[in-house]
Amino acid sequence: MNILIICQHFYPEQFQINDIAPALVQRGHNVTVLTGLPNYPKGDVFDGYDDPSNRKRLDEKYEEQYGVHIIRCSMRPRKKGVKNLMLNYVSFAYNARKVVAKLNGDYDIVLSYQLSPITMAIPAIVYKNRWKRPLLLYCLDLWPESAKAHIKKPLGLLYKFICLLSRNIYNKCDRILVTSRPFIEYLNKNNRVPLSKLAYLPQHADSSMISMDLTAEDNGVADFMFAGNLGAGQNLTTIVEAAAILGSRPDYKIHFVGDGSQRELLEKMTKDYNLQGNIVFHGNQKRENMPSFYKMADALLITLRGNNFVGNTMPGKMQMYMTTGKPILGAINGAANEVISESGCGKSVASGDYKGLAELMREYIETPGRYAQCGEKARDYFMKHFTQEIFIDKLEQELISMV
Fold this sequence. Notes:
Blueprint: E1 2-6, H1 17-26, E2 30-35, H2 52-66, E3 69-72, H3 82-102, E4 109-114, H4 122-131, E5 135-139, H5 157-171, E6 175-178, H6 181-190, E7 198-200, E8 222-227, H7 237-246, E9 252-257, H8 263-272, E10 279-283, H9 290-295, E11 299-303, H10 316-323, E12 328-331, H11 334-343, E13 346-349, H12 354-366, H13 374-385, H14 388-402
Parallel strand pairs: 1-2, 1-4, 2-3, 4-5, 5-6, 6-7, 8-9, 8-11, 9-10, 11-12, 12-13
Helix pairs in contact: 3-4, 7-8, 7-12, 10-13
C-alpha cells in the first residue's frame, strides 16, 4: 500500500508515530508523513529546522535510514500562552491543507495520527474527499474534551464551535481506532460517532528495554521517577504535594525527566516546600539516554488529571514504564488504574489524591520488599498486550481491510 500519514508532530519530536511509520515500511508499504516543524514541547523550532536547506538535509538523512518520506509544512511555533498555542494549531491545519491540495492521488489510504489538536485531521479529510480514499484516524486525545483546559469559558461560543468542529471531523473519518476503551463511549455519546466505526487499539512501546538489566544500585535512597511531558494534563502537582507530606527526609528522591509548560510551577513549588534536596529536574533527554535514567530509578510515578474523560485514558508512558521492570505507583483513574491492578505491576490511588500517593511512596520507602515482584509482572503483561509487533499487526489489518 501507499500510505499517507498526517500528523502535526513527527521526528525529531518524540512520539510513537516515529516507530509506526518505519515499521510499516519494513512490512513492505510505501509511507509518506506530512508534518510540521518540530517545536514540541518547549515551543521553539528545533535547531536546524528553522533553516530550510538544512532542514531538507536532516529529513533526507532520516529518509535514507528509515525509508519514510517526510513532507514538512510551515507553521507557527507553540511558544508560550494560549493565544500562541491556538495560532500553532490553526497554522498547521491551514498550511498542511494547502500542501495536500497539491498532492496526487497515488496514496491508497490516509492515516491521521491524532494527537492534540483535532484540527490536524482536517488536511487528511481534504485528501480523502478529493481522491475518494479511505481515512483511518488513530485517536490519542479526545476532543472537544481536551479543549476545556485552554478555554476560560467552557460553555461559551468558542467551546460550542469546537464541539461542532470535533463532531464534524470525527464523523468524516471512515474508521477510528482509540487508545483507551472509555474513548469509545465518549465519541459515541458526545460526538455521535457510530459504534460500528470505533475499535480499541492500545498504544505500544519500544521493547528494547525488556531484556536490559535496569536494576538500580542500592544507594540507601528510594529513587522515584516521572519521565515525560511536564504539562498541565499530567497533574504533576500531585507528586510535589505528596512529597510535601513526606517532607525533606533523606531516604527518598523524586526525579523529573522531561520538560513542559508546568516545569516552572513545579520548580517553584519545590522551592516553596523546601524540597530542593528531594526533587531533581533533569530536563529533556535523548531517547537513547533514557535507559540510564530508568536504571537509577527504584519505582516509577504516573499521574493524570482526572476531572474529565481524558483522565480515563492510558498515557503512552504506561507501556514504556512496564518495559523497564520497575514497580509503578500511580495517582490516576480509568484504563491505567485498571492495568496497574490487573497486571500487579504496582499500586494506584485516584487521580489528584496526593495524600494517598504519599502513603504509597512511604510504604515503598519503608518496605520496598512488598513490591519485589511488580517489575517482573509488568514486563510479562507488556509482552502479552503492548509490543510493537502486536500493534502493527492489528493496525496493518485495519488498513488492508479498508483499502
